[in-house]
What does this fold into?
Amino acid sequence: VGSGSAVSLSRQVQSTGGSSAVSKCSTAAQGYIQDRFLRLLAGRRRRRAPLIHRGYYIRARAVDHCVQDFLLKTQSLPRTQILSLGAGFDSLYFRLKDMGLLHHTVVYEVDFPNVACQKAALIKRTKELSVLVGDTGGEGLGAITFSGEDYKLLGVDLSELSELERTLEDAGLNNEIPTLFIAEVVLTYMENTRSDALIHWVAEHFPQACFLVYEQVHPEDPFGRVMQQHFRQLNTALHSLAQYPDCGAQQKRFLGKGWTECSVVDMNEFFTCCIPEDEQQRVQTLEPFDEYEEWHLKCSHYFVLAASKGLEPSWTPLLPSVTVPRPAGPAGMAGSVPAAACARLSGIPGLRRYGHHSVLIKPNMILTMGGFGEEDGQHCRVRNFHVLSKHAGYWKAVCVTQNTPGKRWGERLYHTVSCLSDTLALVVGGRTSPSSSGLGMLWLKFPETCNAPGPDDIAVELVSLQPAAEAAALRWRHSTTEMTFKGEQYLFVYGGRSALEPVLGDWYFLHTPELSYTVIAVEGPVPESRHSHSACSWEGGVLIAGGLGAAEQPLGSVFLLRELEHGFQWQAIETHPPLVPRYSHTAHVHEGKLLLVGGVWFHASSVPGITVIDLTTGLCLDYVINVEHLEWPLMLHNHSSVFLPNEKELLVIGGGGNCFSFGTHLNAEPVLLSLSSILISH
It folds into this structure.
């Protein structure tokens, strides 16, 4: 790399550090973490979204967990050191000093020379910072930009190893005492040969050391591709990912470069296993939040690693991966399902959305409504309806405007749509923002001769409910399923969440068409409360599968609500092998088989494809979706799907979400999944 391009690259990397400082500052301001120094160091202030706050919270907790563990386990030793690589405007030293944890520890920070100079100047002119550190006037010696008794700030490029070694020696770093090295999203910005050399150099030169790394993994799944694209656009490519794509590869990397112990966990595992339950609950209730899919995907794409050598086993800051069983992933893939884009639907922005609902209103005709996506050239809650119809083997779509003056009832996310007849559908629940109360019910009426609906063909009317049935409608991420009892038609509204309750486990029987609330006896083991599950009609009853449970943990249970003489009974369906817990999937039943489509699970080495459960034997088979013919990442969560039994095809419409700070991804066009090879009738 020529020096000119190296300088511009270092500027790009530094800008990610500045943005990260602002995000950390916002996270502290909202009460996720206690850190009064971030606002002094971050410069500009800006309130970030709740999803960003959670992401930076878990990052701060992971680093703190390992740092405090190191300090605790070495507190009886006369001297220790911490060396933070690429520290930027981090507040670690000031927090530890303020907490009285640095009695015998010196903190060294290294970053690009201009970053180190800016930070040194900031400390000197900010009394709250300078009074803590006590300036001993040792700066100005080469690359040392600030020197206190227990704090040294050094301006040096990490990839220049010989220069780094010389500067650390000048600053008084002692190779012989236990040292913790921290690299928080730093190594991945370096060329692999250089970061590998740095890891090996530390192991060779420091007989007693720990190395803490926090950075990204899983570059090749849909979220990973969006993440990589984001960093490429910033001109800060993530170099580690190609060579070290997962936690296992990172562990081997350290063990092969002179480190004797190494444990790695992804952030879903860290949150579940290392953060006490009461603290998990505190964080989950700090702000209105409804982006679970993106939160769990973000967490499965970051890891924290702790490597060590030469230390007594009792004071290695080990992570819990050694003792905690990983959630079992799919036992193996039974085959693959080909995906093909519906090319003729590619130019229709209204079909790029998530959190919407689609329903078959008559053969070869699908109504899609609601959600968040593209409309009138911007991202917003989608107001218009779309009707997809199949003619001569091809799908085409028509946008249907909602023509009730002054009313925007169709603008909602995470609602359900049930088709009750050729001319009538019912919309139940949904939300606008996560802090709003749920929305009521709507009738959608379409004319009988609706072959190619015109813009004014769908009438929307608000349903006036009896008070007893109102609670059924004030929820979202629930399910509404058609069922029968004693020959009568009912809708079964189950689960979901509301503005007040993060997860619901109640249910309502609504007699159709007048929607009167009916009490019907239900016995058997009641399923755990859940939202973002799937529900299908089967043999007059209802099949519930998966979902997100009370502690924001995915569920792997399947329940059948089956009709008895005087009511219904919940019956658990055992699956073999056990169903991998998941949520935000869709589901269909075909000839005694339950098909689960996509979703989010914690098992990070693959993304959910199609799972087929034989409802007679409980046999559970996973199939991967073959996306080689798609030119864009297919995100199968927050999507809708319609099963076409004659063709044995699934039409997937929409899907995607807000991918942390990497931008919003919307699946570019509807996709057909051919299931003929996996649904062979026996």
User: Anything to note?
Assistant: The radius of gyration is 28 Å. The first helix runs from residue 3 to 29. DSSP finds 15 helices and 38 strands in the chain.
